[in-house]
Amino acid sequence: MNIKPIRSEADYQEALERLEVIFDAKKGTSESDEADILGLLIDEYEKKHYPIEAPDPIEAIKIRMEEMQIRQVDLIAEIGGKSRVSEILNRKRKLTVEMIRNLATRLNLSAGLLIKDYPLTKR
What we know:
Blueprint: H1 9-22, H2 30-49, H3 57-68, H4 76-79, H5 82-89, H6 97-107, H7 111-114
Helix pairs in contact: 1-2
Organism: Shiella aurantiaca
Protein name: Transcriptional regulator
InterPro entries: Antitox_HigA (IPR039060), Cro/C1-type_HTH (IPR001387), Lambda_DNA-bd_dom_sf (IPR010982)
């Protein structure tokens, strides 16, 4: 096992290639330990060099709706009338604090995520 820090793109590619070779190593072996450590190093490098931005509030709501198989009409109680739900999801109107509280509870989303600013579409 020859593990070293990932400091460059070349180191990163080398680590990915090695992980691919030892990925299915039997638990308890030195190759399995190496795969675990490489996985952690790769993860840290990717977080620093290839960050994934959190979705904006509307995208987060749509993603969670899909995951929970919820339709627009199912959010009337949290947002308001049917047209209000449509306006929010089509970015015609901003979420209010009350809507954010309701959606955070119903969709199990962070209020911090839902309160982020997002652009409206032009009418």
